[in-house]
Write a structure and sequence with these properties.
Order of helices and strands: HHHEEHHH
Strand content: 5-15%
Largest sheet: 2 strands, antiparallel
Number of strands: 2
Helix content: 40-55%
Structural class: mainly alpha
Strand order of the largest sheet: 1-2
Shape: elongated
Distance between the termini: 32 Å
């Protein structure tokens, strides 16, 4: 039984509930192939300790993923990524970013940032994250 190590980043001040952040990050990891069918997620207790959040928050996220068929509860073993889940194409993954990109573009306009300033800022952020 192989447990996947999850590298999750939570942003309590983002306005998005923690359980939704967990759901979306896990879904993206499945879509990108970082998590594959048959991989096990960390236990609720283990992930709650690692992320310093209430175990009910983890349980709620896992329950949502289970109800949508992305994970399967394996009695005595934990939550496993469903076998039928497949890696999405680059195009499908990029499409998921469209709402975020639209929001970013709108906020840059509201802050009176032009295209070049935005590209330079984003490039610097990406360079730091993808070293």
């Amino acid at each position: 039984m192989q447990h996947s190590s999850l590298v999750l980043q939570l942003s309590p001040s983002s306005g998005e509930p923690i359980y939704r952040q967990l759901i979306e990050q896990i879904k993206r990891m499945i879509a990108s192939g970082q998590l594959n069918g048959g991989d096990y997620l960390p236990s609720v207790r283990q992930l709650a300790v690692e992320l310093e959040v209430n175990p009910m928050t983890i349980s709620k996220a896992y329950g949502f993923l289970e109800s949508h068929g992305e994970v399967v509860r394996m009695r005595g073993k934990g939550m496993m990524i469903a076998e039928l889940v497949h890696k999405e194409s680059i195009s499908e993954r990029l499409q998921k970013l469209t709402p975020l990109a639209d929001t970013l573009i709108q906020q840059c306009k509201e802050l009176d940032l032009n295209k070049q300033q935005t590209i330079e800022w984003l490039t610097n952020k990406l360079d730091k994250e993808f070293k």
